[in-house]
What we know:
Elements: E1 13-15, E2 22-24, E3 26-29, H1 47-59, E4 64-66, H2 75-84, E5 94-99, E6 101-102, E7 113-114, H3 118-132, E8 137-142, H4 152-165, E9 168-174, H5 178-187, E10 192-194, H6 204-215, E11 218-221, H7 236-240, H8 256-275, H9 280-289, E12 296-300, H10 304-310, H11 320-333
Parallel strand pairs: 3-4, 3-12, 4-5, 5-8, 8-9, 9-10, 10-11, 11-12
Antiparallel strand pairs: 1-2, 6-7
Amino acid sequence: MRTSANAIATLPVRPFGRTDMAITAVGFGAWAIGGADWAVGWGEQDDRQSVAAIRHAIDRGINWIDTAAIYGLGHSEEIVAQALRSVPLDDRPYVFTKCGLIWNEADRLASPRQVGARDSIRREVEASLKRLQIERIDLYQMHWPAEDGAPIEEYWQALLDLKQEGKVRAVGLSNHNRAQLDAAERIGHVDTFQPPFSAIRRDAAAELLPWCAEHETGVIVYSPMQAGLLSGRFTAERAAALPKDDWRSRNANYQGPALDRNLRLAAAFQPVAERHGTTVAAAAVAWTLAWPGVTGAIVGARTASQVDGWLDAATLRLTSEDMAEIARAIDDSGAGSGPAQPARG
C-alpha cells in the first residue's frame, strides 16, 4: 500500500523512474483474471478467487496492480475495481492499465486492432476510468505500437496530454523498440517501459534495459516466469493438457523441443531456490529483478496461494554466483534468446 498505519504488511519499495511513485519489486498482474472468451485468454477463471487473490496481494504488501483494457475485453479492469471497492483509499495500490488495443464486440475471439488515433485513446481512457471506478489512472501505457497509420508522435502526444490534464499520473510504452523509445523521448519523457523479460525471453536486456537506465525510465517487466514455464510446477503433461481456450496451448514455447529446453532451464532454478529457502517461482522472478534497469516485475496470480508462491521475490536478492549458475544453465539448455547474465560493471 502507499502509506497507511492500517497496512497489514509492508514490503520495501524503490523509485519508479522519475515519477513520484515508489513501488514494490513485484506487482500483481491481472492478465489471466480477464477470463476466457477472448483472443488471448487463459481459460475460465473464478472471479471470486480473482478478487480474493488481489486482496491477499494487497494484504501482503504489494502496492501496484497491472491490468489492461484488452484483458478479458474490459473484464480484468472490472474485477480490479471490484477487489478495491472495500479497500480504504489510503490503503489502495497504484493502478496501472493500458490502451491501444481495440476489440470487436461482435467477434470477441478476433485479434484486436492496434490503434493509436488520438480520439480513440481519449475514448479508451474514459472507458477504463469508468470500469476501474477511479478518478485518475496512476500509469497509462500504450500497449503495442499502432498499426492504424497513427505515428508514434500522435499517440505519445495524446498520452502526454492526458498526463498534463491530470487524467493519468504517469505515461509509458509497452512492447516498443529502441527507435520508438527514442522518437517518444524527443517529444516528452517516457516515464516507464514494459517489456517481456524472463530467463527464457531475454532480448530486452540487449539494448532496451540499458536505454531505460540511461534515460531514468522506470521498467516493469512482464511474464518473468514465462507464463508459468519457470514456476517450478509446469510439466510436459500439463502443457499437453492445456485447454484450447488457453493461449499457451497454441504457443511454440509449450510444444516440442522448445518445451524440453524450457523445462530443463526451469529445473536449474531448483538448487538456487533451495539455497535461499524459497520457491522456483520466486527465484525466477528475482532473476529478472537482478538486472540493472529493472524496477519491478509483473507477476500474475489467480488465487491467493499463487501470490504466496512468488512473493519472496519482493525481497530476494540473487548472488553473482546464482546468476552465473543460471547463465550456465541457459547456455547448456539452449532455451530462449538474449544475454544470459548482466555484464560485469
